[in-house]
Amino acid sequence: MVNNFEIVFDSNEWEDSYNEPLDGVSQEYKFDLIIHSRKTDERIPVILLKGNSENKMRKVKEFIDMVPKNEFKRKIAIYSGVIGPEIKETVLKYGMKLYKKIIMNQGNMEKIIEVPGAQFFDDYGKEMEKGYEKIQRREKIFIVKEILELLKINDNINITKIIYKCNLNYRYAVTLLESLIKKGIVENIEYKNGVKYRMTGEGLKYLEQLQKLYGNKSP
Length: 219
Prior knowledge:
The protein has helices spanning 53-66, 85-93, 140-153, 159-166, 170-182, 201-214, and strands spanning 6-10, 14-17, 33-37, 43-49, 75-79, 96-99, 101-106, 109-114, 119-121, 127-129, 133-137, 157-158, 186-191, 194-199. It is α+β, with helices and mostly antiparallel strands.
């Protein structure tokens, strides 16, 4: 899932690693980050652009010099601050996408990779230095609210759309929906082409309560 600000990867399908060499690229060149597919051999190299425009352009040119243009299907640069037109033109011509951050979605947790150096938050909210990534908890109540808001405007929706629209992984989405079904907030209906979900009358009342408490939009 992508937009002009961030790109989201499901951790069931992708994983990240740091400072590793790859075949076809000089062993002297270490990537800032590699996003690995768990299901295929796809690798997505990522560079981090920080500092002034000169430093960012130097990093881009180094990457272009060291990595063949057609070596990877996708290439990503994440950046902080301002990106000038020269850098934008260069990376786009090279087939690279620009984002502010990468999110590795882990159910009700998400790892956010961004620049400059961020903080790592453990399960208790304690801050620890961890380079340029952080993990933050997505509160369950807001995920439930987001699912119900989706079901309100999309009656009879399948699990795939719920996962995509709410940025959830499959296992966590199924567990959460089963919980909502037991509480009578959501119901599932079997069709020839698979199972679909819809909100019940009790679910609508519950959503209205959540919206009164937390507003009409999730934070």
